[in-house]
Specification:
Two copies of one chain form a homodimer. The first copy, chain A, is α/β, with parallel strands linked by helices. Chain A has three domains: about 10-75, Arc Repressor Mutant, subunit A (Orthogonal Bundle), CATH 1.10.10; about 75-195 and about 360-375, Nucleotidyltransferase, domain 5 (2-Layer Sandwich); about 200-355, 2-Layer Sandwich (Nucleotidyltransferase, domain 5), CATH 3.30.420. Helix content of chain A is about 40%, strand content about 20%. The first copy, chain A, has helices at about 10-20, 25-35, 40-50, 115-130, 170-175, 185-195, 255, 260-265, 280-285, 290-310, 325-340, 345-350, 360-375, and strands spanning about 55-60, 70-75, 80-85, 90-95, 100-110, 135-145, 145-150, 155, 165, 180-185, 205-210, 215-220, 225, 315-320, 350-355. Chain A has a five-stranded mixed β-sheet with strand order 5-4-3-6-10. In chain A, strands 13-12-11-14-15 form a five-stranded mixed β-sheet. The longest helix of chain A has 21 residues, at about 290-310. Chains A and B meet through strand 12 and helix 10 of A and strand 12 and helix 10 of B. Chain A binds a DNA duplex through helix 3.
Chain lengths: ~375, ~375
DNA sequence: TTGGGTTTTTTCGCATTCGAATAAAAAGCC
DNA sequence: GGCTTTTTATTCGAATGCGAAAAAACCCAA
């Protein structure tokens, strides 16, 4: 038997993350992934197995040599809650310790909802999840709309909930549930969701395009989400647009590229026209569209994405939200238009792809937050 | 006496950096800055003093308690070379171990210079510096124009030196001088120069605006320079401009905002007009200018900076290069124009300042690279 | 079946790093 | 001047993490 006392909780958490993500499958690969020695890694793994967070699930014989003892996360060790909301609804997911989505809950919010009630409803969602999820709740991730101070756990501002100003959501929920609560902006949470549940698996640099009721982006550089000095990185929705004309009401990127605006432009109707009941379906109808409207929309997207690409020189743009219904062709049209407008992009390898995640990407991202933040007691 | 054997070279280097920058002035503050225990810090400092890299320069009595034993770097311990070049000239600086600029060398390059001769000339510059600098050369930093793979030490591409393609500059120079050689793009080196010699002292997030023969930016986020997946972050010069018109020859940001273009626009002459002999002086003449040309130039700058600000939400923009001759008022005009065009910026606290560094900022940045990379043998 | 080759895991001694306690150096205060 | 208070630096035992070497587990070939 080996010596027992180990303490670095943070490293234990990191080890679990590596195993859960599949980046590390054995003690040796885990050692490399964590950058610590194989001997120490052995101790950590022993500890985690003793505490029932990990287990050994068989052997993996390579072409030669002693086979690896495969490590995997113990699904029953507990679960993570991912909560995301906007002014209309809360979406919540329960994810087991292995990182598998087990349950989704959706809760509509009344019109003109206030911060207090949002928090209460968030707790309701967790309670609902807890009814079916196995084991203890380990931590909670929160995807919050608007400006967010992730470090402090405070929701700074959100236009569509009147009193959403300097709300210490994280503390409020932590005090009720007695588990760690981690906060992040909606869209930045989605960036994490891509890493854990979507296309961002092996990626270290990518940008999330989030056209919903407005237009914003989230950037991942070197594996880290960019926050900005004022927590406002990626808030490009208030770019004046079209750029060269003067500023004015309605002349912002929000009004040109949001999901409703995109539908209106494709449908060729003005701002007063009623939106379809189901916007996603409404958009899907245009998946095979052509013509000047299509060109115009793609052109605007191309311009914005082109500019972004030349600034931060990232690898991939992942399109999110309702507009994914427009499919691959939409992304391809944008790529083509961008390369036509900006010859420099041809070499740079511009790549735009629709996300494979659905409507609950935000909640999944919140769950990712929870997973990334957790470490054993 | 304490025990002697210490090995973590990297930590020793980091300790010297903290002392040199003035962030740490005593053993205790150094311990905090490095995130290691005071006891260990004591050992490291002893070692560095024994090796003549640091010394104790008196006491600093606080309001109470035992006074701090002030640590400082030993200027005579050696020196760093900072080299920067473009197609016209090399600039080189010698910086002593305390980080003080001691010497500058400038060497013009012949027209149509090739990579080989650039490298030879770089070595000539180092030799010239070595004649007067005291102590051993410790490391060399290189500010290279164009695309650069900093990690690999390779100059990838530069339009104005014909055979500047995949040049392993770092290795070539290292093999001659037998000291570490660190590479970085020109403008990104300037970003470091601001931190060590200029306005970026306490800053962790800022953007360098570099209008010279073209237009590019360098971004520092959380203390780290952003490189981009293809080493091309900040290469915004090929943005189509004016944005909404189609692409075309000469319709790029380069051609609107470069230093020569700015002069031409302010002077109201077309692209064929001859540039003044001394562009800096020529620009300085417009420092008190007004009128539609001034407005137009500031408007374009305002648009670009505004867009950038909303994307990466950084704290400060530092203007570099010849246009600093236009002074504070230029920056103020841009700020005003940006806030007029983009109401969102008013809250965000947009701040634009001219750099206090002169023409040798690139070389100083290269020297900063050298300092940051060095650690004792 | 036995022995070499290869890769993973563990053992074991060592030493760097830490923490708590101690010493040191000054100021203020009676 | 001695006392306490406060902050900085050092001492010293304890222990975490590392490296080298050994052990383990598997393949393959003779």
């Amino acid at each position: 038997m080996r010596k027992n006392p180990i303490v670095q909780r943070e490293t234990l958490g990191a080890a679990v993350l590596q195993v859960r993500s599949g980046r590390a499958t054995s003690r040796t690969t885990l050692a490399k992934a964590l950058g610590i020695s194989p001997s120490t890694t052995g101790l950590y793994v022993d500890h985690l197995i003793a505490e029932k967070y990990l287990n050994e699930s068989g052997l993996n014989q390579g072409p030669m040599g002693r086979p690896r003892r495969i490590l995997s996360t113990q699904a029953e060790a507990g679960w993570f809650a991912g909560l995301e909301f906007n002014a209309q609804r809360i979406q919540a997911v329960g994810v087991d310790f292995s990182g598998s989505l087990k349950m989704t809950v959706e809760l509509p919010l009344p019109a003109d909802v206030l911060a207090d009630q949002v928090i209460k409803s968030l707790l309701t969602c967790v309670a609902k999840l807890a009814e079916t999820m196995q084991g203890p709740l380990l931590s909670v991730g929160l995807g919050v709309p608007g400006l967010v101070d992730a470090q402090a756990g405070i929701g700074l501002y959100y236009a569509f909930i009147p009193d959403w100003n300097q709300v210490p959501v994280a503390d409020e929920i932590r005090s009720k549930l007695k588990v760690p609560v981690i906060l992040q902006n909606n869209l930045r949470a989605i960036a994490l969701a891509e890493r854990w549940f979507g296309l961002g698996h092996g990626l270290n640099d990518y940008v999330i395009l989030g056209p919903r009721s407005g237009f914003g982006i989230a950037m991942v550089q070197d594996g880290r989400v960019i926050e900005g000095s004022h927590h406002a990185a990626g808030e490009v929705g208030r770019w004046p647009w079209p750029l060269m004309e003067g500023a004015g009401e309605g002349k912002e990127l929000h009004h040109a590229l949001s999901a409703p605006a995109t539908w209106r432009r494709l449908a060729g109707v003005d701002g007063l026209a009623k939106l379809p009941e189901d916007l996603r379906a409404g958009l899907a109808a245009f998946a095979d569209s052509t013509g000047p409207e299509w060109e115009a929309v793609c052109g605007d997207y191309a311009r914005v994405i082109g500019l972004l690409h030349m600034i931060i020189d990232t690898g991939v743009f992942i399109l999110h939200g309702p507009l994914t219904m427009l499919g691959e062709r939409f992304c391809q049209s944008i790529t083509d238009a961008a390369c036509a407008l900006m010859p420099a992009l041809r070499e740079g390898g511009l790549k735009i792809v629709p996300s494979t995640l659905g409507d609950n990407a935000g909640a999944l991202g919140a769950a990712s937050l929870a997973m990334e933040a957790w470490s054993p007691a």
